[in-house]
Amino acid sequence: MVQEAIRRSRAGGGSSSAGPSTSRGAGGSSSQGGDLASRAAAAAEARLTRARSGGTVPDVDDSAMMDVDESASDSEPIPTKRGKKAGKKTNSKKPSASGKKFATYGDLKKAAAADKDEKAAIRKEQRLERKRLGRKLTHAEKTTLLLRRYHPELRDVWGDLEARVGVAGAAPEQAEQPSRLKLALLPFQRESVAWMRKQEQGEWAGGMLADEMGMGKTIQIIALFVSELAGECAANGKGKGKGRAVEKPGPNLVVAPTVAVMQWKNEIEAHTEPPLRVLVWHGAAREADSAKLAAYDVVLTTYAVLESAFRKQVKGFTRGNKIMKERSPVHAVHWGRIVLDEAHNIKERSTNTAKAAFELKATHRWCLSGTPLQNRVGELYSLVRFLGGDPFSFYFCKRCPCKSLHWRFQDHKTCDDCGHGPMQHTCFWNNEILTPIQKHGMDGPGKPAFKKLRILLDRMMLRRTKLQRADDLGLPPRTVIVRRDYFSPEERELYLSLFSDAKREFNTFVDRGTVLNNYSNIFSLLTRMRQMACHPDLVLRSKTNANTFAPEEEEVTICRLCQDVAEDAIQARCRHIFDRACISQYLEAAAGVEDEPTCPVCHVPLTIDLAAPALEVNQAADGETGAEGVVGARSLKQGILGRLDLAKWRSSTKIEALVEELSALRQQDATTKSIVFSQFVNFLDLVAFRLQRAGFAVCRLEGTMSPQARDATIKHFMTNVDVPVFLVSLKAGGVALNLTEASRVYLLDSWWNPAVEYQAMDRIHRLGQRRPVQAIKLVVEDSIESRIVQLQEKKAAMVDATLSTDDSAMGRLTPEDLGFLFRVCVCRLEYSAAC
Length: 835
Description:
The chain is α/β, with parallel strands linked by helices. Helix content is 40%, strand content 11%. It has four domains: 2-113, no CATH class; 138-171 and 390-467, no CATH class; 183-389, 3-Layer(aba) Sandwich (Rossmann fold); 618-800, 3-Layer(aba) Sandwich (Rossmann fold), CATH 3.40.50.300. Residues 206-390 form the Helicase ATP-binding domain.
């Protein structure tokens, strides 16, 4: 013990770590003076020397060494040499060469005792908790006990939150109709306006409006805008004077998907009187002066533009041989309110888009989403982080009071604030909610985590469904029909040939026990089978002509995953190009299968920024109206039709089923308009060609179109009675559109995640719809499509309408799901996994 004290005192002993002592030698000695420390070392060494020489060891007053006087730091040190009499001063006038402060022997003993007592107290707490629960503690539960020792404010977080929820659960108040809003609000919409005002005056200063799609979230936010500008924030007399003070109105920033920006602008201008001053911050010539931005009532922008501006500010861009940085005007303004429309666009917290949203400055923050949970509970963290929830989005140290909103480990070894390692820090959200749910689901320790999630969502989120508010909405009924057809003999022969090859390859992976290592190959096989069920040309022409395009004819970017037009093209580090929706779907589906997803083309570990700006594409055809009434259509040379002999072209079972449905509808009621969704742009080319031959005028909406072209296309369809069919890419138009002029939806192919299909259906089943709505899903029997529909039904059953359960399985394909799609016995998969 004495030798250890001498060694530590010579090495500079004391720990510089802040907070309570955690281990031997870390006992708050940074304030000790050189004189006392050196004297302690000298005394300890003298005792050791005299003991070795057989002399008597005088008693040492440890209490004197423990008596710390910070003013002693200017005292002269008394170093000693081994074998010389203790107490003899040498170089007494020289200051300490190392400049470090030394730990005393007493301090070391005190630290060791404190450390022992602390560990005993921790063990006692764990014993009591085990006795209370009647089982062993999980790692997360042990971490919770440690956090409560150094962060007392965390002890009653959930109890306090549940108490506040109970108060909030009282009868809802209704706000008055805003005087500047021309559209009369429905009762449930006035309730939400009152709730939003109350939230803005509370500790969250915002929240999440998660009404089901089609219930008017946009108009509710506009009502909030104008009520604030009209000075009506104190309309609720009961809330006046409580909570956060009502601040002076500031500019509002709305970040929305590209397809929704012009809709926001149109609704604001149409429903406010006098109209709010609105700026669409988009395009190369967008305003660079932050002061001018702040002069508008509402600024509208897109997620891609927000990310681009933030990236240029943080990372810069290349100009010539230099890297230039450009200040982001939207990040320079302190906004009165920020609204994220379709907020699940920032669900991946590590993307640049999410980081760009986090760094915006605002007094109030709002998230709008009809499907805030799309794939995993962990995706909610980004929304909580954006809203600034304390302590739910913070990192805490388990060994000291250190707390931070950011992961602060520049050297990847020690915390920049407290000096403890990464293993001593944890995210409150992960520890309390995400980790227990991921490991245990609804069983055991996962059940309290689900309850905590429900409490948190009740505090920060308002969600109503159409069924709950049917009386207020007055919406017509919606029915979903699955139409099932069968392959023609020729199609069946082609499909079985492709299916046999795919199944043989899949069985090889199963027999080798490498299913999890070949997910990218399997996903490509599934995509080909889905395309074959739509039309054989999607596979045959893509396979035989993918590398034979002439350079002058390659006017579009091709997704290497689906071999279709990449409407929103992004590039991976391995230089392969994918459509953003395709690769996102691939990564979501692979989340439960592969630890490290690989590129579907070259099979190296996949590194891709899902929030990167889209690659440049040719948009020369955007906004043009052809002689046949096709708006925004690409030239034949650009699509699959340019590679076909149209005189000999044959349709498919699915296309003929659609023509049959539309023809019957035209005979029944020629005024009924229809929306046709497909994931594959090349398939929409074939559908458009066939419908035009059948005498239907059609419009097209694709991801390659600019916001202005999209707006023109939508207006053309909504106002032109001679255009009964709107062909929409599910990737580009499945969200944030209001197409209530139509009352029929046709889904030509199924998406892995049924939430995407629900979004598409609700483009027409929303406020303003006066006709009964029908959604028809076209499915080819005895194909992979019928299996996908069954898989959707199984996974959709796991999702609770109140968002109180984990729907992570909705977008994720497990090995058992893959076996189901390939009709392989689950027991073989289990044997493969065991290998």
